Amino acid sequence: MRILEISALPVWSMEGKGGMPSLRETLRGHVRGGHEVVLVLPRWDLFSPDLTPVSTTAPEGVEVHVAPCRWLPALKAARTAAARIGGGSMPYLARWGLNLAMLLCLTVSMVLTAWRIIYRGRRWFDLVYAHNQYAALAGRIVGRSQGIPNVTRLYGTFLGELIGKPLVWLRYPSLSAGYLAPHDLLICANDGTEGDVVARKLLRDQSRFRFWQNGVDLPGKPPDTSRRQLVRQFGNKGLRADSKWVVSCSRLSYWKRIDRILRAVAECNRIGCDCQALIAGDGGEREPLRQLAAEIGISKQVVWLGAVAHDDIWALMNVADAFMITNDVTNRCNPVYEAICARLPVVSVKDRSTADLLEHEVNALLADKDDWQALGSHLAALCREEALAGRLREGQDAKADALWSWEQRMDVEVRELESLVSHGKPGRRELRTRGRKKR
């Protein structure tokens, strides 16, 4: 197949080293399946507070084109002005209008770029694949214009907690677009954000909906990097070999609630454990979190690693003492899968999204979301009690057996896409070929 992929999300959002593994692995899976992949990206990171150019680096075998999105600077300036008028918090109507404007403007930019690839380049595709709700409408328009199937891929949703509100599709049009934009197939990640609940509310045809868990990007072989080697690599950031290490891996956004991790580490050290928090990732909350660490007296106990290559994340998990995640919306995400596969004990919050993955005193230690003292006590227990840590590591083995690798996950998807194309209506390229044969 020739697949035209339209993404509102960057592949590598953190200094070209990190980003969404699920997006990256989706592209890799399509290429690994033997298909030709052309990817359209916006020139700017749509969701960054600043005007940040998007990295055009993509997995091998993926051809990248850029949509200019010349309207985005003006839109971001309007956001800044609206927030200033609202005293730091953007008024609801302003946020509603600006989000809708971004959806519509991005749709036009993506469609025009896709048509330029198709018509100027005289290229024809078998399938359009839209990543994220902001690209869903563009995928539908391009698919209909070419007479080919369109697929929408959602990487979770923020509608889960909002779906009970009246007229939710009208109140949150940009969030609802991924479900409401017509599609031949809608794939949503089972990441704990209750995308299946939203689908039952917004979709009429459930037969076109797939709710799949992400895979795990396992290393080719277990990492053999030692703690001393990692100290040499990250020692300039304050990493010490003689302390206990707890790893966190995520984009530094507010809903990730890294502040809970910092307060738990402060409590752990107050109890008497020399524990360092290794914060892998970057984002808009970095400076506020640095200030918080200074305020609670643990600046030297926090190692800000920034964007870290995936192999280095595996190396850190292989020698760390614990993994910690305390998100607000959902804690069912790829770093948890990787910690499980690395046999790393987890300290986390009680969350129904991870009820089948993290069990208290089986493979994890859990506490209420804002009980940072209990989280700190759990972390101290792991640092002090080798028997407890060993028991939790053993508990990860059974959980790891139930997880997909990314190869397994994408094999399932590729077969579904191939079936969709083979049973769908003939695309414009196929119709032209038939016309030439008749003549």
What are the key terms here?
alpha/beta; 45% helix; Rossmann fold; 439 residues; six-stranded parallel β-sheet; disordered C terminus; seven-stranded parallel β-sheet; 15% strand; 2 domains
Describe this protein's structure:
This protein has 439 residues and is α/β, with parallel strands linked by helices. It has 16 helices and 13 strands. The strands form 2 sheets. The chain has a 7-stranded parallel sheet, with helices on both faces. Strands 10-9-8-11-12-13 form a 6-stranded parallel sheet, sandwiched between helices. α10 links the parallel β9 and β10. The longest helix is centred in the N-terminal third of the chain and has 29 residues. The protein is globular, with a radius of gyration of 23 Å. The chain starts with a strand and ends with a helix. 44% of the residues are buried. The C terminus is likely disordered.
Task: Write a short abstract of this structure.
The chain is an alpha/beta fold and 439 residues long.
> What kind of oligomer do you see?
single chain
CATH top level of the largest domain is Alpha Beta
Q: Count the helices. How many?
A: 16
Largest sheet geometry? 7 strands, parallel
Shape, principal axes of CA atoms: globular
The H-level CATH homologous superfamily of the largest domain, spelled out, is: Glycogen Phosphorylase B
Number of strands: 13
Give the overall pLDDT as a whole number: 91
Give helix % range. Answer: 40-55%
Between the first and last Cα atoms, what is the distance in angstroms?
26 Å
**Secondary structural class:** alpha/beta
The CATH architecture classification of the largest domain is 3-Layer(aba) Sandwich
Q: What is the CATH topology descriptor of the largest domain?
A: Rossmann fold
Query: Order of strands across the biggest sheet?
Result: 3-2-1-4-5-6-7
Which percent band covers the strand fraction? Answer: 15-25%
Q: Calculate Rg over CA atoms.
A: 23 Å
- Low-pLDDT runs: 426-439
SSE string = EHEEHHEHEHHEHEHEHEHEHEHEEHHHH
User: What number of structural domains do the residues give?
Assistant: 2
